# Entry
Amino acid sequence: MGGHLRHDPALDRWAAMRENVYQHFKFTRTATRQVVALGLLFPLTIYAVSAVYDNKYDWAGKLKGSSLLRNPPAPAPAQDDE
# Structure
């Protein structure tokens, strides 16, 4: 029952690198793209979408068949077929 686990030095090296990644980090072209995309473009996209749809819809007290738009377009005037 006394089975021993084999020790893998590659796992130790990987764990040490993972724990100390901040000491060896360098801004490369790829890292810079990721920081810009996740740190700037993603939040700006979320902000732009929320700014467009802010106050566009009104969900409170709507009846079945009524428009969810806060300012619905005016109904088209009825045309006579005469």
About this structure: The two ends are 99 Å apart (CA to CA). The chain is about 50% helix and 0% strand.
